[in-house]
């Protein structure tokens, strides 16, 4: 048994001692999107600090709790907050929560993030379901699968031709229609951060084919696909990154925009999760 598997067993044991919830669906909430966790009929709220081998979230607006319970009738595990590469965390720590969700029995992973809008036709507060991604840090070496591979966890060379499950994307669109919400679909590009990009960099990212840009999510997607989880992910457009009309942005404004749009995403995800029971 590998060290990773031992650590996962110890984390699972600590959680199982406090809850009997068994869930197929795991949810990771990003910047300004913590309110969904309050919609869960919770049997357990457990700080990351109480889970063995789990690093603590330090970013503003990330509470850093695991919530176990039901959401719209579906058993779920929800992680309120995530770890980011720019915080200085190791990639193995960043993706450990996803591997833990899988070890707890989750087969479906729902991710959310705040992102900058590169598509000039979109507006602040728009919701987007991710159809594909460009992992810029991954292309230059910042990939959670770099290093020795544990074949008991996943294959050495996992396929990434369809990282986001098409049926789950269709379920997201159906949930948006059922709740009267507009849902974009597009490409997310990850950069390392924590600084925001220059006009030239935004122009490059747009030319690469990205609709939104952010600093998270993709390591978790890679780790989830490595273990065979089905993935769906959402972005809220929290600032506009159009080079020709670029204005200064700050994290407080981004969080306020995410919080203002949060009820829409909460409503959509809650509706969608209800169909996954």
**CATH architecture, please?**
3-Layer(aba) Sandwich
Mean pLDDT: 93
**Rg calculated over all Cα atoms:** 18 Å
- Approximate strand percentage: 15-25%
The CATH topology comes to Rossmann fold
Domain count: 1
What is the helix/strand order? HEEEEHEEHHEHEHEH
Strand order of the largest sheet: 5-8-7-6-9
Helix proportion range: 25-40%
Word description of this protein:
The protein has one domain: Rossmann fold (3-Layer(aba) Sandwich), CATH 3.40.50.1580. Strands 5-8-7-6-9 form a five-stranded mixed β-barrel. Helix 1 crosses helix 2, helix 2 packs across helix 6 and helix 4 packs across helix 7. The mean pLDDT is 93. The chain has seven helices and nine strands. The longest helix has 23 residues.
Give a brief rundown of this model.
This protein is of the alpha/beta class and 277 residues long.
Summarize this structure as a short list of keywords or feature phrases.
single chain, 277 residues, alpha/beta, Rossmann fold, five-stranded mixed beta barrel, 7 helices, globular
Q: What order do the helices and strands come in, and which of them pair?
A:
Elements: H1 3-16, E1 25-29, E2 41-47, E3 65-71, E4 74-80, H2 91-103, E5 108-117, E6 127-135, H3 136-139, H4 166-178, E7 184-190, H5 199-208, E8 212-214, H6 218-226, E9 230-240, H7 251-273
Parallel strand pairs: 1-4, 1-5, 5-9, 6-7, 7-8
Antiparallel strand pairs: 2-3, 3-4, 5-8, 6-9
Helix pairs in contact: 1-2, 2-6, 4-7
């Amino acid at each position: 048994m590998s060290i990773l598997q031992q650590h996962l067993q110890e984390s699972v044991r600590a959680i199982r001692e406090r809850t009997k919830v068994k869930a197929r669906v795991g949810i990771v909430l990003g910047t300004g999107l913590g309110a969904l966790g309050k919609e869960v009929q919770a049997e357990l709220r457990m700080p990351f600090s109480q889970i063995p081998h789990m690093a603590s979230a330090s970013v503003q607006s990330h509470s850093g709790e695991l919530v176990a319970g039901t959401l719209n009738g579906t058993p779920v595990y929800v992680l309120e907050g995530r770890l980011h590469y720019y915080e200085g965390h190791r990639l193995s720590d960043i993706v450990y929560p996803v591997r833990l969700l899988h070890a707890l029995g989750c087969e479906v992973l729902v991710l959310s993030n705040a992102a900058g809008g590169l598509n000039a036709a979109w507006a602040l507060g728009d919701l987007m379901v991710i159809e594909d991604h460009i992992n810029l840090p991954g292309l230059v070496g910042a990939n959670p699968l770099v290093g020795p591979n544990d074949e008991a966890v996943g294959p050495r060379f996992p396929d990434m031709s369809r990282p986001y499950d098409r049926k789950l994307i269709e379920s997201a669109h159906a949930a948006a229609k059922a709740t009267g919400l507009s849902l974009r679909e597009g490409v997310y590009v990850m950069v390392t951060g924590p600084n925001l990009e220059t006009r030239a960099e935004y122009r490059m990212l747009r030319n690469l084919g990205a609709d939104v840009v952010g600093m998270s999510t993709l390591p978790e997607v890679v780790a989830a696909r490595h273990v065979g989880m089905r993935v769906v992910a959402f972005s809220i457009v929290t600032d506009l990154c159009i080079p020709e009309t670029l204005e200064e942005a700050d994290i407080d404004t981004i969080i306020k925009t995410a919080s203002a749009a949060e009820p829409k995403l909460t409503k959509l995800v809650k509706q969608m999760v209800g169909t996954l029971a």
